[in-house]
């Protein structure tokens, strides 16, 4: 078994992204606009264009005076992300985009169309410090936390792309999952601020239901407890990958700090407080965590710790080039699902998307460095 890599919980210091509307509270926005020589109500106009119109193009903001319009947009809606390239697959239903931030940092987001929804998977960090050995992002290490503005901008750009037919037909972005690059709970304050802005009604936010937002974590217990205290209706997803501490210590090195029982107890408190089922993410890895007895153990542990307030989301591993980790064969996957369900635990297999476009988190960014 591989030796776990050291964990990194704080991002290295790098140049801060340009100040953005999404990074400021109401007072901060008003102060910036006033300092630029504009009346306070310009803030609401900018917010309506950004969150409601999904634009930062000054030419479209004809309700702002022509004189100083571009300067005002540059001041509060600077360009945070530029598209490096986008790849599409699944007959156009999946679109993965590589973005470059102001400092050259590369991050990824994935826009996906389903029969009943359009979902974007967003990044919360550039890279990741959790060091999970089967994850492309984790192997690249942590570069820095993303700003609130950079997180919200991924969602705004996805909503605009969906509206403008990037998936083959116009649609409305309905679901957000924080399952891209990075550990969301390790960038807690900015992720929480972004979630509040994503779910706030226009013109102060994008107006997406909190129940349609999923925040994942490998199990940072203090952060789960903080999110519980917020009493929001977002779904919590725990990347478990193993139900016993011995294996999880290797697959998810943060388990050396917070063990399986502690993580699931924190998840149970979240479920009890919000009334929402917790999603347990479990990447099936051939001959590592896919044995029948491990399915039985997973069901036993979840039934004891979470009762009926849980759903298991099995993830067929998306192997990265050169990795010794591989996906479980289909019959093994099917038997795993059967055993978990037989024990009374809800269990489904995640719809695999984008295997031909470097779909594993961080894979596209790694190929582009």
From TrEMBL:
Residues bound to S-adenosyl-L-methionine: 182-183, 216, 239-241, 318
State the UniProt keywords alphabetically: 4Fe-4S, Cytoplasm, Disulfide bond, Iron, Iron-sulfur, Metal-binding, Methyltransferase, rRNA processing, S-adenosyl-L-methionine, Transferase, tRNA processing
What cofactor requirement does the entry state? [4Fe-4S] cluster
Q: Does Ligase count among this protein's keywords?
A: no
Which Gene3D superfamilies did the record assign?
Answer: 1.10.150.530, Aldolase class I
Q: What is its main location?
A: cytoplasm
How is this protein annotated for GO cellular component? Answer: cytoplasm
What are the GO BP annotations of this UniProt entry? Answer: rRNA base methylation; tRNA methylation
Q: Which domain of life is it from?
A: Bacteria
Q: List the Pfam families.
A: Radical_SAM (PF04055)
- What InterPro entries does the annotation carry? Aldolase_TIM (IPR013785), Elp3/MiaA/NifB-like_rSAM (IPR006638), Methyltransferase_A (IPR040072), RNA_MTrfase_RlmN (IPR027492), rRNA_lsu_MTrfase_RlmN/Cfr (IPR004383), rSAM (IPR007197), rSAM_sf (IPR058240)
Which parts of the sequence bind [4Fe-4S] cluster? 128, 132, 135
Q: Where in the cell is the protein located?
A: Cytoplasm
Tell me which EC number(s) this protein carries: 2.1.1.192
- Active site positions: 108, 361
Cofactor descriptive note: Binds 1 [4Fe-4S] cluster. The cluster is coordinated with 3 cysteines and an exchangeable S-adenosyl-L-methionine.
**Any idea where the Radical SAM core domain is?**
114-356
Q: Which GO terms describe its molecular function?
A: 4 iron, 4 sulfur cluster binding; metal ion binding; rRNA (adenine(2503)-C2-)-methyltransferase activity; rRNA binding; tRNA (adenine(37)-C2)-methyltransferase activity; tRNA binding
Question: NCBIfam families, per this entry?
Answer: rRNA_mod_RlmN
Family, according to the entry, reads as follows: Belongs to the radical SAM superfamily. RlmN family.
Q: Any extra remark in the record?
A: Reaction proceeds by a ping-pong mechanism involving intermediate methylation of a conserved cysteine residue.
Q: What does this protein do?
A: Specifically methylates position 2 of adenine 2503 in 23S rRNA and position 2 of adenine 37 in tRNAs.
Q: What is this protein called?
A: Probable dual-specificity RNA methyltransferase RlmN
- The protein's gene is named rlmN
């Amino acid at each position: 078994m591989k030796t776990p890599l050291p964990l990194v919980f704080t991002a290295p210091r790098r140049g801060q992204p340009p100040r953005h509307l999404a990074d400021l509270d109401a007072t901060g926005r008003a102060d910036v606009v006033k300092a630029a020589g504009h009346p306070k109500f310009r803030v609401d106009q900018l917010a309506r264009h950004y969150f409601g119109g999904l634009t930062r193009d000054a030419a479209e903001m004809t309700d702002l005076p022509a004189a100083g319009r571009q300067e005002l947009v540059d001041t509060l809606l600077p360009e945070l992300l530029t598209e490096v390239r986008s790849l599409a697959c699944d007959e156009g239903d999946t679109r993965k985009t590589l973005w470059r931030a102001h400092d050259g940092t590369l991050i990824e987001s994935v826009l996906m169309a389903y029969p009943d929804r359009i979902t974007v998977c967003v990044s919360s960090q550039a890279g990741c410090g959790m060091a999970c050995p089967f994850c492309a992002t984790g192997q690249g290490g942590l570069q820095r936390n993303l700003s609130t503005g950079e997180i919200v901008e991924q969602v705004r750009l996805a909503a605009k792309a969906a509206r403008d037919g990037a998936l083959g037909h116009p649609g409305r972005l309905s679901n957000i999952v924080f399952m891209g690059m990075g550990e969301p709970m390790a960038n807690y304050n900015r992720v929480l601020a972004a979630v509040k802005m994503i779910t706030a009604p226009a013109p102060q936010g994008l107006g997406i239901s909190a129940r349609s937002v999923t925040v994942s974590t490998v199990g940072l217990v203090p952060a789960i407890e903080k999110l519980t205290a917020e009493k929001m209706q977002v779904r919590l997803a725990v990347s478990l990958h193993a139900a016993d501490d011995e294996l999880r210590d290797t697959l998810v090195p943060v388990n050396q700090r917070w063990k399986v029982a502690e993580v699931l107890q924190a998840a149970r408190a979240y479920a009890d407080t919000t009334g929402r089922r917790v999603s347990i993410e479990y990447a099936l890895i051939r001959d590592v965590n896919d044995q029948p007895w491990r399915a039985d153990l997973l069901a036993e542990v979840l039934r004891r710790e979470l009762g009926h307030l849980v759903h298991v989301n099995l993830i067929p591993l998306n192997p990265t080039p050169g990795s010794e980790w591989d996906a479980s064969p289909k019959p093994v996957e099917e038997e795993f699902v059967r055993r978990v369900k037989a024990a009374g635990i809800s269990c489904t297999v995640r719809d695999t998307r984008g295997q031909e476009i470097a779909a594993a988190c961080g894979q596209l960014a790694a190929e582009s460095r």
